[in-house]
Amino acid sequence: MSPKKTLKKSGFNTEKYLKFQERAIEKRLTKFKDKLYLEIGGKLYGDFHAARTLPGYAPDTKLLLLKRLRKNLEIVFCISAKQLSSGKTRGDLGISYDLATVVALEGLRKFGFSVRAVVINRFAKELEAEVLKKRLQRKGYQVYLRYEIEGYPENLDLVLSKEGYGEDNYIETKKPLVVVWGTGPGSGKFSTCLGQIYHDQKRGLDSGYAKFETFPIWNLPLEHPVNLAYEASTADLGDFNLVDPYHLATYKKVAVNYNRDVESFPILVGLIQKFDNQKKFIAHYRSPTDMGVNMMKKGIVDEEIVSRAAKREIIFYLFRYRQEYFKGLVDKKTLDKIGLLLKRAGVSEDGLPTVPAARRARKKAEKDRKKGERGIYCGAAIELKNGKIITGKNSPLLHAEAACILNAVKVLARIPDSIDLLSSQAIESFKEIKGKVLKEESKSLELNEVLVALAISEATNPTVKKTLEKLSELKGCYLHTTHRPSAGDETIFRKLGLWVSTDGLVSKEPPGPLVN
Fold first, then answer.
1. CA distance 334 to 427
2. CA 202, 207, 210 angle in degrees (round to 5)?
3. For the segment 351-405, what is each residue's pLDDT rounded down to a tens digit?
């Protein structure tokens, strides 16, 4: 099945999925008398990986789910002191973990959720953790500390003692459903849940644990494109999917899980056996898959559309990791892993239609160059929602991405290609400022500059106004460039909601100025 076909309709029904997912969590909640600690993996909102992989999946689906469960839940948020002190950044957001924590908490507040507590895990008096603690407290958040336990998790006697979990701050919660979320993998969500259960047991409370992950989808095949796309999204972490050996041994059924859950399952069982006198946990959880409440398969309504989109997502991550490799954010193992995933999915990088189209546009730019003209020639391509591919190439007037976006909105507004939205005089005025005042080497206009120029002429030109109104229709469209976009244009891409890939730093072109 080729991923080049257009995605004209949804392959996933969010509302149908939400009904099944809500019931599954409520059913799990009834298994424990006092509390259920629900660890949520991945993004709570803005999950564009899921939205690209499952067309029709709303990026804020998990948030919509929590709103339905709001009356019974409160939120505990986790961050690792070790991640703070190492200066680790969120690759998807390009910001440090301390800032990502603040952004996530403010996002929850914006959506109407109050956070019961922020937990700093693996705390050992790191300065960065102390600073974040004060910052959050001054914003009105309750901050709790959980400490590094030597030999965790193998040394169970120490973990389950006054010097282990017993030394951690206990978080008093009032609602039966406690959602535990964090700033990314390794934030200590699992340990926080188990530590709370340990303290609950000491207080005579009957509490339990469950895990809510979007991917992998346990009841899809291991080699299904959706599960391969999840491996692609976590290739930099070294995660991989596998058949749950505990589930297979217990139920004689194949279920897909991922390595960290399978690896941590014996730890969970060992901890439980130390204080679960009634054996309630063991009765409920005989495999890592049993711990989950994933109902994602219920939302898939078109297998072909979903499989095609998932293959595109693997290709999309190939370009992201190439960029991160040259920035020093990932190692060659990540590139090798994503290359292997492309082979397993049976696709190549040309399977993302914007890629070969942008490269053809670059070749056309080079072919059209004036005699004796030198520089780097660039192309860009965008795929509209109807599947039509629109391209742009750099010229003395416009950068490739600016030309591409202008061409795209003209097509959407049904404006003939022969009509110029910007006069040559306006462009020359901008170029003169860039060259004489700002001393910039490349004087052709970037996308952000083009949008400013259009906004200025909008009041007097109804054609421009009609075109600008079409910018919102670009949200969720794929765009590929053969060069690294400017920082200003990258910001515009994010605001427009474009899904951008680029050859950028992996281009074989020699260094040199863009064509002016």
1. 43
2. 135
3. 999 999 999 999 988 887 765 566 678 999 999 999 999 999 988 788 899 999 9
Backbone angles phi, psi at 481, to 5 degrees: -125, 150
Query: What's this model's pTM, rounded to 2 decimal places?
Result: 0.86
How confident is the model over 112-124, as pLDDT tens digits?
A: 898 999 999 999 8
193: nearest Cα among 163, 141, 231, 153: 153
Three-class secondary structure assignment of 21-32: HHHHHHHHHCCC
**What does the radius of gyration of the chain's CA atoms come to, in whole angstroms?**
26
Res 515: pLDDT: 36
Q: How many alpha carbons fall within 13 Å on the CB side of residue 453?
A: 24
Q: Tens digit of pLDDT for each residue in 217-231? A: 999 999 999 999 999
Rounded alpha-carbon distances, angstroms, from residue 272 to 29, 263, 287, 485, 486: 18, 16, 13, 52, 53
Query: Which segments of 379-475 are extended strands (E)?
Result: 379-383, 389-393
Paired with 258 in beta bridges are 241
Which among 268, 93, 101 is positioned nearest to 194, based on CA atoms?
268
